[in-house]
Structures are given as C-alpha cells and as structure tokens.
Amino acid sequence: MLLSSLIAAMHHLAAFAIAAALAVEFATFSRAITAERAKAIQLADMTYGIASIFIIVVGILRVVSFTKGVDFYIGNVFFWVKMLAFSAMGGLSIYPTIQFFSWSKRLKEGQLPEITVTQEKLIKRLILFELACLSIVVVAAPLMATGFALCP
Any stretches that span the bilayer, and where are they (predicted)? Predict the structure, then answer.
C-alpha cells in the first residue's frame, strides 16, 4: 500500500512539473526574448519532456502493477479521455520543442533567437491548446479514479 501511494505521488509530481513547465513557456515566450528567457524556455521544455516520459512510465506501472488492475482502466472511458488528451499534448508540443531547441546554436554564438510574428502566434496558441488538454486530463483523472461512468 505504501509503495502504491509513493508511485501515485510520483505520478502527480510529474503532472505538476508538466503544468509548471507549460506555464513557464507560456509566460516567458515572446518575440522580444532575451538570452536568459530563451534558455529558461529551453530548460522548461526539457523538463516537460522528461516529466512526460516519467509520467508515461509511472502511469504504465500503475495500470499493470497496482491497485485497480488493467481491466478497470481499459474499460473506463475517462482513462481513454486522459490518454487521448495527453497524446494530443505530445503532438501539440512537437513544433514548439523543435523551435526552442533550434535556438541553441544562435545562443551559443551570443545571438538571440529570431522569432517571426507568425511563429510567436502559433507557438503561443499551441501552448494554450496544450494547457487546455492538460485541463481535460485533470478533470478526467478523478472521474476515472472513482470509476464514474457516463452511462450507468
């Protein structure tokens, strides 16, 4: 029981790390970027990636090894809502991640990233959509955990 609780806590901490990373990216990203902010965004994005991998590994462990069993999750619509929303977050994050890490060479040369108006709008919008997907995950999680069903 203690191990199950610790695994659940790690799962939640990874989710909070993802939320924090997205908040940093959204609050910090703009065309008028400094080198320090660009590096902070890169660090936040790396944190997001690592926390996402961690949450997947721990989530799989929770499904197959702890508490409710695989059948509980596989048959629960809110489990699939969470999986879909989390997968959408991953897909939405690809373009911003590529852009953020394309800045590395310029930053090493002491230059600032070049961000077009179109890139700024698109990346801001993608991060907002990621945050919306995260909100869906947060709403679906307790519905899934309690076994709530859309149809009795």
Answer: 48-65, 77-98, 126-151
pLDDT digits (tens, 9 = 90+) for 135-147: 999 999 999 988 8
Distance from C-alpha of 46 to C-alpha of 23, rounded to nearest angstrom: 14
Q: Is residue 151 part of a domain?
A: no
Please give the radius of gyration of the chain, using alpha carbons only, rounded to the nearest integer. 18
* Residues 64-73 pLDDT 10s: 987 788 988 9
Count the domains in the chain: 1
- What is the DSSP secondary-structure string of 5-72? HHHHHHHHHHHHHHHHHHHHHHHH--SS--HHHHHHHHHHHHHHHHHHHHHHHHHHHHHHHSTT-HHH
Compute the C-alpha angle 7/91/133, nearest 5°.
65
- Cα torsion 40, 14, 50, 73: sign: negative
Separation in Å, CA 142 to CA 23, 38, 145: 22, 35, 5
